[in-house]
Write a structure and sequence with these properties.
Shape: elongated
Structural class: alpha+beta
Distance between the termini: 32 Å
Oligomer: single chain
Largest sheet: 3 strands, antiparallel
Radius of gyration: 13 Å
Number of strands: 3
Strand order of the largest sheet: 1-3-2
Number of domains: 1
CATH class: Alpha Beta
Number of helices: 2
CATH architecture: 2-Layer Sandwich
Helix content: 25-40%
Length: 84
């Protein structure tokens, strides 16, 4: 996107996953993308869709790349590590 924001989507067509799993896969892709620039992915919004075993499961992220020292990025990482 023109303002330094990006979108990435991960999908599973086998239906043996969850939308949250696909969102985490999308975050891995976003972090790799930003990491190649020496930064980290800061999530601005996310969506999940699909029904297990019935339709494709997807997770999409809208994100920006920020310095890894950015306070919001550090809080996001702390929140994600608290997720069981």
């Amino acid at each position: 996107m023109s303002d330094g924001s990006y979108v990435v989507t991960a999908a599973n067509y086998l239906g043996m996953s969850s939308g949250m799993h696909e969102t985490m896969r999308a975050l891995d892709k976003a972090d790799a993308f930003c990491g190649s620039r020496g930064q980290g992915a800061l999530i601005k919004a996310h969506t999940e869709s699909g029904l297990p075993a019935l339709t494709a499961l997807t997770g999409s992220l809208f994100f920006t790349c920020v310095p890894r020292e950015d306070t919001a990025y550090l809080h996001q990482r702390a929140d994600l590590t608290a997720v069981p």
